[in-house]
From TrEMBL:
Enzyme class name: transferase
Record field: transmembrane: none
GO annotation terms (biological process): tRNA processing
Organism expressing this protein natively: Candidatus Limivivens intestinipullorum
Start and end residues of each Poly A polymerase head domain: 24-143
Keyword Translocase annotated: no
Protein name: CCA tRNA nucleotidyltransferase
Gene3D superfamilies, per database record: 1.10.246.80, Beta Polymerase, domain 2 (3.30.460.10), cca-adding enzyme, domain 2 (1.10.3090.10)
Domain of life: Bacteria
Amino acid sequence: MRIALPKQVEQIIRVLEENGFEAFAVGGCVRDSILGRQPSDWDVTTSALPEQVKALFRKTVDTGIRHGTVTVLLDGAGYEVTTYRIDGDYRDGRHPSEVYFTRNLEEDLKRRDFTINAMAYNDRAGLVDRFGGEEDLKSGMIRCVGSAGERFEEDALRILRAVRFSAQLGFSIEEETKKAAAALAPSLERISQERIQTELVKLLVSDHPEYLKTAWELGITRAVLPEFDAMMETPQNGGYHNYNVGEHTLKALEVVRPERILRLTVLLHDCGKPMVRSTDEDGRDHFYGHGDVSAQMALEILKRLRFDNDTIRKVRTLIRFHDWRPLPTERAVRRMAGRIGEELFLLLLEVKRADEAAKAPERRKEALESVDELEALYRSIQERGDCLSLKKLAVNGQDLIADGMRPGKKLGEVLNALLADVLDEPSHNTKEYLLEQSRSLR
């Protein structure tokens, strides 16, 4: 087998070999190359010690020198070069307490998480595959290197990573690996929320976000996202749904575009339903106010998972309004777009479309047609250039001050009142009309 290495990686390997060391491309870049995918980055493993690597290349950065990693800078890009190593005990469930450098490639490969990530390659030796990674790629299998229990005890995040790789590649998880994951899933509670967030997002934006169900089946979500377990336990008896809340969410995740904000929104859009569920005398379930409750819970969940404020704002807004059903009129659409913001309105329609597509088939056609109608109205509004925000209002605060209004809280109230007027009637968005109107509002 031959893998096309980038010229910079070839150069790093060549320089190390010419100076008496071994060097290989390793890990995910080898896996992705075999699968015919474009690797996102290239890592090199070598028998050279970090100081020896630094001596051979003009520009390097000590990115993880304690664990043997030096980043070599070539042509404006960085390539991690790591010395073969054997890890000591993992006392914190993440980092080895000690690292021992070795000159044996196989010792280095056997400490890695999954067989598909434990292959190395260079043009001289070809593919080095001591643990059956290539065969597991062919059979579509996620399997730990050696003892699954030991690998997961070393770093519990690997339990979630197993599901994440499964979702990204469409692979199954090997039975012993799955058993160990289920047994050790509670240990994920020790993992930092930032690391959980990274893996969860990668799973969600993968080709198979519905594999989140595997995480639920193995007890992983109980440790990292217990709200999803409550969703999987909440039925939706009635005319709109033929799935429970969690299954409906999984179906909606399959439908919506693989974009980070959209997938996070769909994951959490109904997370408040278990909290507000009520059942009437006919046995029909109702979820009154679940949009607001879900938005508040999403705020708490995303903060817990250490998401940034912009992501939280967008997801929370989309969830809050996902169940709104405006009249199919341009006036109602302008008002809604004005309230949530133009940047989010089309995303909201995508969320609504996924939500409706995951409901009972007999309701689906009419519901999706209503979303299409809202989008058609919004496109017409955009084409005309109707004002939907204060930025496009024909007057601003300075105009009102120049017209004799004092700065202060009232100024903002008047501007918002003028925007509401223009949302109702776009032709009113002229400076002359708005200044005259503002005088009656001061």
